[in-house]
Structure formats: structure tokens, C-alpha cells
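Task 17 of the worksheet. Students: predict the tertiary structure of the chain below and write it out as C-alpha cells. Keep your answer in the requested format; marks are given for formatting as well as content.
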Amino acid sequence: MSDHRLNLYRVAVSPRTTWWFIELHTPAGTGLGECSDAGTAAAVLDEVVRAADAVRGRDVLGERELVVSGLAARVGELHAARAHTAATVLGGLEQALSDLAARHKGIPLWEWLGGRPQGPIPLYANINRMPGSRAPEAVAASAADAAAQGFRAVKCAPFDVPDASLPLADVGVARLRAASAALPDGVELFADFHERLTWQEVESVLPCVEDAGVAWVEDVVPVDAVDRLRELRDRMPAKVAGGEMIFHAAEAESAATATVLDVLMPDVKHAGGVTRAAGIAAAYPELLISPHNPSGPVATLAGAHLLSTAVRPGLLEYAHGEVPWRAEVLRGAERVEDGYLHLPDAPGLGADLDTDHPSVQLVWSCPL
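Model answer:
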């Protein structure tokens, strides 16, 4: 086998979730990245092939920035759906390149990024991908389970799944109320709207959201909808969060300038990598940085390292309860205890993919 190779791995987690991992082997070492939630399998593979072409024949240590900037420029030339896939695959490749560079220097990724030493990273539990129904009582049980595991904040997406018997706004409110009632004192509730409601529907549910004690509302409207974001800020005490899909820092500028956003959520996948996400965070030192991360264990480690660079680091999102074998994929390197992620001590991300794990499937491999 060539000592200069790019591998793409697939992990089927649930009907909703598939993790995609990029593994880059070079004479200088190995790097690992994640490009989950990038689009269809065919589109992901096509973009990974293009990424491999961009790396082929390059000095991946000395020309890392050139490779990333070239692929980033291509993202701007594509239509929306394909641009998202290309950006996210770039995110996985860039994570792998950064992991490789940090490993080559023998230092953890947070140090290579110029961040500060970190203790355990506080997490919040995203329960939106737990198995089971989205009936209010099931959402409540998932929220209670996350709280029992030590998470100090729990996020649900109450408006994601329609119910034929009720308007979407009404069923979402029922889920929020059930989750709120299930959480003990001291555990916050976050609500991710995923831009599912019309503004008229948003206005109708805001009093109920406030009554449920929701501490954070996310993606109620697009991050550039400044007037609507201002209305949210004026009408409720919850923090306003957004920006999970931004690729360029300038996409959040209008909201930040208008001071209508409290929490910025760059994603190490969708932003085109951990260094690009760190650049987005650095552009807005006044905002709380809480990386968007309903992801697998590789992006979770990358997001944790990213937080070391933030002026105002917030909580890291963690996809709680999807599968019991999650940590095994990285041979236990993702260690979550009592709502905190403990970063490994090893260089780079601090983890290697267990390619012998029965869930890890090699989809494509190419010599470089």
C-alpha cells in the first residue's frame, strides 16, 4: 500500500445519522477529519475524489494553506446544495491536514492553533438524534436521561418532526413544555428552531417558549435577518444563537454589528475546517463561541480544540445517546464524564480511527 493515501470511511449510526471520516496517510504521518452531514453519499464521494486530486503531488505540510484556499475558492462557484457538500468535505480534509501538522510537531491541536491550555470541556446534550419517537413524553424522557448523565444544558429541536394531528407550532410547544418539566433545577433548556416556522408562527410560540424557561433559541431565522433577530432580542430574555452554516466570517457581520446575536456557532465541518472555524470565531471576540456539532467523535474533538482559541468560549454541542459504541470508534479517545469532554494528551486531535471496528466501513481509498 502507498504511504501517501487518502481513505474515506463511513459509519452507519442510525436512519438519520451517518458519520463520514477522512484519513490522510503521508510519509510525514497520519491526519484524521470528519465530514458528516455533507449531503448524499454520491455527492460526498465525488467531492472527496476532488479533494484527493487537490492534495495529490503536494507537500501537505508546506502547502496546506494553498490546498485549502484553492478548494475554498471553488465552494463559492457552486450552487447551494453542492457548495454545502464541498465546504463540508473541505472541512474534513482541512481537519486531517491540521491534525497531521500538529502531530508532526508533536503538540496537541489546540496548541498548534495558538489556543490556551484547556481543562475538561463543558458540553451540552443535543437529544435530537436519540432513537425513539418525538412524542412529548419521549422527548421528556430523553431530556431527563441527558440530565441524569450530568449535562447542565439540553437542546431539542421541537419543530423538526411534523405531527399530522396538530399544527407544527403546537406540537413543538408541547415537546418543549414536556422537556422543560422533565429537567431538574440547574439544567438549562435550549431550543433549535432550524428555521422551520414562519415568522407569524414564531410570534405565536414565543410566549410559550419563554414560559418553558428556554435559555437559548437557535436558528429561529437566518443569521443575516437582522431585523427579525432584533425583534427576538427585544421580546424575550433567551440568548439568540446562530451561524452554524457560515463559511466566511463576513456572513455574521451584520448581526454582530447590530448586536442582535449572543452566540455564534461555527462548525468545524461546514466552515471548511478547524482553522477556518477558528478564524470565524476570532473575527467576533465579543460573541460567545459555541461550536455547532451534532457530529461524530472526530469533529467533536476538533470542536473542543477550536474552543481553546475563543476569547469567550461557550459550551460544545454533543450528540447524546445515539449509539452506545460511539467512543469505541476512536478506541476510547473520546472520554465524556458528567457532561464534560476530557481531551486526550496525544499530539494533534489525540485520536486514531479504529478501522477494525465493525461499524467502520472503508468506502474509498486512493493513492496520492
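Marker's comment: The chain has a mean pLDDT of 97. The CA atoms of residues 122 and 340 lie 5 Å apart.
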